[in-house]
């Protein structure tokens, strides 16, 4: 499937995303393996924040807090880096089909 992406590998149309597209984006990333349910939970959280919270793309601290609620247990940023070694807020957003966001630091 041909995906229309920008220079950073992010989809140009976030509405073109699906779980199959996420798997394709992850497969093209050398640091990713198959997507687990935990990966999908994070991706869906990021998409929910973007589409239902004024196009918010949360930084790591907020992703940690959000996923702790979703999973019902306290997690840390290391847990997210196991899933997204290229940074949950950057690599996660890319695989979630969201626009590229330039920012420094994780917090």
Structure report:
The protein is mainly alpha-helical and 107 residues long. The protein has one domain: Arc Repressor Mutant, subunit A (Orthogonal Bundle). The chain has 5 helices and no strands. Helix 2 (37-52) packs across helix 5. The termini are far apart. It comes from Solemya velum gill symbiont. GO terms for molecular function: sulfur carrier activity; transferase activity. This is Sulfurtransferase. Its EC number is 2.8.1.-.
Strand content: under 5%
Number of DSSP helices? 5
Number of domains: 1
Mean of all residue-level pLDDT scores: 91
Helix and strand content put the structural class at mainly alpha
Write the CATH architecture name: Orthogonal Bundle
Output the helix-strand order: HHHHH
Report the strand count: 0
CATH fold type: Arc Repressor Mutant, subunit A
Helix content: 40-55%
Q: Gyration radius, to the nearest Å?
A: 13 Å
What is the makeup of the main sheet?
Answer: none
Cα(first) to Cα(last) distance is 35 Å
A few lines on this structure:
Keywords: Cytoplasm, Transferase. The protein is an all-alpha fold and 107 residues long. It has helices at 19-27, 37-52, 60-71, 77-83, 87-95.
